[in-house]
Every structure is written in structure tokens, then in C-alpha cells.
Amino acid sequence: MVEADDIDDHSTPNAKIVYSVVSQTPHSTTAVFGVNPTSGIMTLKGCLDYQQVKTYQVVVRAEDQGTPSLSSTATVNINLVDSNNNPPEIVKKKYVGNVKERESNITLLRIVVEDKDTPNTPAWKAKYSIVQGNENNNYKIVTHPVSNEGILTIVKPLDYEVSPQKALIISAQNEEPLFVCPLKSGKSVPPASTVSIMINVEDVNDPPVFTPEKIKLIQTEGLPPGLKLCKFNVTDSDADHSTIRFEKVYDPENWVKVDPKTGEVVTIGELDRESHYVNNSIYTIIVYAIDDGKPSMTGTGSILLYLRDINDNKPFILNKHAHLCEKKRSVVINAADKDLQPYSGPFTYELLDKGGNTKSPWSLGKISENSIELLKTKQLPQGNYTVPLKIVDQQGISGDDALHLRICKCNEEEECERMVPISAGLSGAAIGAIFGAFLLMLCKCEFYFFICGFVLLK
Q1: Is the pTM higher than 0.70?
Q2: What does the pLDDT read at residue 458?
């Protein structure tokens, strides 16, 4: 906006001002700027292009309506600020990339764009999108912060057997929305620049595939060898005629054998649920399938063998060694069984008579789940005792076991006091007598050897 003042009487034509554009620099066939004749507000009559002209000088005249008419001029300097009026253009219209199947996290190619807007501004920085061909999210494209290139990366492996070629369409736009001058008749926002990309997938040897990868089976423990468990189903997508070799790689108890040609699995040992390698009644077997490709590839399959329990274990005393303070009357015995319910506790107990006609100094008291109370029926001296027991599970399977019990003098924490060494309880005289006896025996031995030697010399 330009503004002029006239000191003449404002109620007369001498002070009525009319504005007009005298010239603009640089010159053009069509005036770019205009001015409102009464308000002095400058207007835009054409479209500006920062890439062609960055600065304008416009001369504006202010003229009164008096007689004679008087006027003066002013120069308006206009500096243009760049905006996004030029879309990014992808230089090449076709790209070709190559990748091996099963490869990922590698750069396939870099897409180059040209943009006439001011570098390193949102009007210049490109933003790339994969508009077609990425339905399975195999690819990712990002903008290089310096070169403005689009870097296409594969993030999820491709499969040659599914399709040896993949087609993509990628578009490029700016971070800032594209601006189109509204003064240009028929002008609309052009579509984003796009490029077609062909990805060639190179075939490599694929590993054999187990179907299913994990076989879940249920068997009862204790069955004899020779039981057919299953047969692995394996396919190789590279060639129907490829040879597959099966190899057992994990079977810690060596319970099965796997036919190297057919993948048939047969037991060669008796299944035992109580094995250390059985976890929560499940025994795991792992098998490889190895093809004859170049290079050879390996697939992995497994068997999860759930073993049903049978009553094949006898109950036993859990802690076979215990102590009983001499002033106490009872001790608790805990029993266990490696079998599951209903082949284990609660147990019944019976004292076994190992002393002939001698009356046992023990009796059985209160039973609680898998434990029982052992009672003294009379006062017993300190020492070690063996208490034989018979333990019977719910199904009548019994096991004979024994508790090794020490009756001792206890401290306040009800722990057995340490046994005093024999030497600590002897007087000085007793020790001297023992030492003297030892010397006497030594002298006798020397005398004997002396006599024997004398006889031999004779």
C-alpha cells in the first residue's frame, strides 16, 4: 500500500489524489502489479515466479485533480519469497533392482529427483510413497537428508517361487503442499511424479519345510519298543525331485529312530514319563531334513510327545536321614512318588518288624497327606537307629524303605549338639597309660625281631 498527502484544501479537487503505476522493473509485456486509484492498495495482476525474478521495483504516481494537476512518484521495492510452486520431478521413469530371495535389510536402489525450489526448504525436500506393489509390506522408502534421493530398502524377504518379479510404483511429493497460481486460467494441481520399478528376485536354494513344523502326540509310558509314532511330511519348493535326508539331532534318551529316507519315527526304547528330560510330561524330539542342493539347506521339525502316566514307581521316603531330640517324642516322615495322581499319595504306612520277637520301640501316629508321624513308645538312648517302613500308594503299589534316625541331645534351636571327640573326654592319666602301653608294645616288637635275627644267624 502506498499513501500520499496533499496540503491543499481537502474539500477541493486540489487535494483529491489518484494513484497509478508508472513502471515496473524488470519490464514485462504484461503488468504484474497494479494499484487501487483511490486507496493506494497495491494489487497483483499476474503470477510471480521466484525462479525467474526475485525482486521488483514499481514506480507509483500520486496525482491530484486540481488545475493545473500536480503529481509526485515513489518507488516500491518488492522482494519475493520462494514457495512450493515447482513439484519434484523423478529424473528416470523406470528403475530395475535385483535381490536374492530371503535377503532383507538391504538397499535396492536410489531414486533421483529434481526440484527448482530453494534447496533444503520444505518446498524442496521430497517425500516418497510406494503407491502400488507393497501390499505385503516388503519394502520401505526414506528420503536421504542431503541428496534428497529416495532410498528403497527391502525389509521383508521375497520368495522366488511365489513370483520371480515384483512391480512397484513410487511417487514423489514435497513436504510443503504444491502451490498453483489462481490467476492462471485452467491451472490445477498436477499429479505427483511417479516412477515404475521392476524388482528381479534371484532364486536360491530354499530349505525343506516341515508340515506341520511341530507334531504333537500322546502316548502312554512303558510301551515296548517298535511303536510307530509318526511320519514327517516335508516339501521342498525348489524342485519336486530333490532328495531329502532325515537326521535325528535331539533325542537325549535315545528312545526313537528316524528313517533317513522316509522320515518315519519308531520307538527303540521304553518311554518313561519320569525321565529327567521330560518336562511337564512332554518329551521333545528334534529332526533335520537336509536337501541335496548346492549349497545344501536344512529344515527343522520336532515332535512334542506327551506321555500318559502309569503306576510304575514305588513310593519312597523323601528325606531318609533325620534326627530326634532325646526329650522329644515324635518326628515327621515325608514320602513321595514319581507317578502322578491317582498313582501316588495320599499314602498308607506300616512299620516292618526287623527285630524278631522284640517289641518295636516305634509306633505310627497322625497321617497328613504325604507325611506321617513316627512316635517313640519308650525312652531310647542316644545313638543311630534304622526304622523300616512299608509305604503304599492309592492303587496298592508298595515300597519298602527305611528312615535313618539319630537320637541326640539338642540345643535351644533343637539341633543336635556336636559329638565330642574321644580325646577331649580323657584325663591326663588315661592318656599317659595309653601312651605307655604303646611303648611297651613297640619294645616287644623290637625284642621279637631281635630273637628272630639271632636264630637265623645260628
Answers
A1: no
A2: 41
